[in-house]
DNA sequence: ATAAGTGTTCGACCATTTCGAACGATGATC
DNA sequence: GATCATCGTTCGAAATGGTCGAACACTTAT
């Protein structure tokens, strides 16, 4: 099929170096919120003056805040991130549906989209527990380790799917994670027939999940919806039939609503 | 050439120019999601190649995504923004409380924090309407135009308050917005006695609000909590006594819970 | 008073960003 | 099926601007 691809595989295309150091600072700041200038310079191995200049720039632009206890990432990231989130079609509708599903099943429901070959959490709701904030909002897991991720993969057009599988590194998340491309391929095929996908302790030990894809009016995949719970509770009929049916119904309704929005 | 360095706070401190152009791109991308390279270069008045390089860098770092219909801001902003949000003490507790208040009052409840001299939405919940997403999450309004903003100002130590008032530009949001520093000062004093603050169509026509401050265990202000609603519904006893009491109770409880967390 | 911890400034070196024009790829129009 | 319009991409030359390290200023603890 394709052959002229190898050259772009690893070559760092020409890139703005300064931006890398800038986001290094941001990155370190998220991992070590409230860090001081000296700490950051030390950890990043840049000159203090360099880090200082970047922090000052970031602060002036609103992306960093300096308080008495050190530097913090600013809420402008949240502002931008929220617009990024709402740029997904039907996000509001999906969010409501996620909460409905959580309530109906008593389990945790979540919605992912694909970005840069990973599954990114966009919404999550818990059935039983008090309404807790979404801790991992925006966090990423490999597509092949999530039921919703597999559902997304299965809806991709063949060439894109091929590319994506090519680029995957298949690092295990748990000892049940699929690490064989052929095995993943087979599961995608199987799930395509059924319309729903499973995750048996592949992303978290002791946790099962069922997932389905959400597609837009033109057939393009928007994201994936899944229900997660303890493996002892997600089993048998409920796991293999009831929850899938519920999800398929939800997906269907969602897709209709999205198409008419 | 010699620089006349006005040692006041006015001068542009030395700043990473490249970062400015980079965030110019990001900014434009949030305002015009899905823009093409040519559009961005045109609107920003940079060379196409320059914008291209920045976009490529941003994409490689995960902060921008290129889809068939153009470039989009990436969800990494959301990821970073969420950590910024949860770096505020007691955010989870506050969020729950906001939802409780919305449910109890049937009106809209919201939580702000101060950043860069503005009030930033961190949480919002609506009582009546279906659970809708927070549209303006991360968005900013002037402190002096929000009841919760005034509450925050009133809790600041005098020197900081002074500085902040100095820097304020007092641009009106509606025709009821306070634009006179002395008037604001007076309202802050008055509210300090009472413990709560009002907003009478100062941020949105036809809308009233009551707000209180939330403080941490050391007396430092964390943010402000407020209830908003149509001015015809927020009036009389309910507006000037019931809601304030409710909010003061909520703040009190919150502060206790936060102190013990 | 001293010391250790902040953040801040400065000038010289040289890395790197910027620009514009030309290229290649894709899709629309006639 | 050829031509035009648009899109993203590449390239080298010129100068803009980022990096470094040492020294400064400031606050708090010893």
TrEMBL record, chains A, B:
A GO term, aspect molecular function: DNA binding
Biological processes, Gene Ontology terms: negative regulation of DNA-templated transcription
Pfam short name (any one): HTH_IclR
Claim: Transcription is one of the keywords in the record: yes
Record-annotated IclR-ED domain positions: 76-260
Keyword terms, alphabetized: DNA-binding, Transcription, Transcription regulation
Signal sequence annotation: none
Alphabetical list of PROSITE patterns matching this protein: HTH_ICLR (PS51077), ICLR_ED (PS51078)
InterPro entries xref list: ArsR-like_HTH, GAF-like_dom_sf, HTH_MetabolicPath_Reg, Tscrpt_reg_IclR_C, Tscrpt_reg_IclR_N, WH-like_DNA-bd_sf, WH_DNA-bd_sf
Highest taxon of the lineage: Archaea
Domain HTH iclR-type intervals: 16-75
Name the UniProt record assigns to this protein: Transcriptional regulator
Species the sequence originates in: Halorubrum persicum
């Amino acid at each position: 099929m394709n052959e002229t691809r190898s050259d772009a595989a690893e070559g760092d295309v020409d890139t703005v170096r300064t931006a890398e150091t800038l986001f290094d600072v941001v990155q370190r700041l998220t991992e070590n919120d409230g860090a001081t200038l000296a700490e950051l310079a030390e950890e990043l191995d840049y000159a203090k003056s360099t880090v200082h200049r970047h922090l000052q720039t970031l602060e002036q632009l609103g992306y960093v805040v300096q308080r008495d206890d050190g530097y913090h990432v600013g809420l402008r990231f949240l502002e931008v991130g929220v617009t990024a989130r709402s740029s997904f079609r039907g996000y509001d509708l999906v969010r409501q549906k996620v909460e409905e599903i959580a309530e109906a099943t008593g389990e945790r429901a979540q919605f992912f989209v694909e970005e840069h070959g990973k599954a990114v959490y966009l919404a999550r709701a818990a059935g039983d527990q008090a309404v807790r904030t979404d801790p991992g909002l925006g966090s990423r897991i490999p597509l092949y380790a999530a039921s919703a991720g597999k559902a997304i993969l299965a809806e991709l057009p063949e060439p894109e799917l091929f590319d994506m599988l090519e680029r995957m590194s298949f690092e295990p998340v748990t000892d049940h994670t699929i690490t064989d491309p052929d095995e993943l391929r087979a599961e995608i095929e199987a799930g395509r027939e059924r319309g729903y996908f499973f995750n048996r302790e592949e992303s978290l030990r002791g946790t099962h999940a069922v997932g389905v894809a959400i597609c837009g009016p033109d057939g393009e995949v928007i994201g994936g919806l899944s229900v997660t719970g303890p493996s002892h509770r997600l089993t048998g009929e409920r796991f293999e039939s009831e929850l899938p049916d519920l999800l398929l119904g939800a997906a269907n309704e969602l897709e209709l609503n999205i198409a008419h929005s």
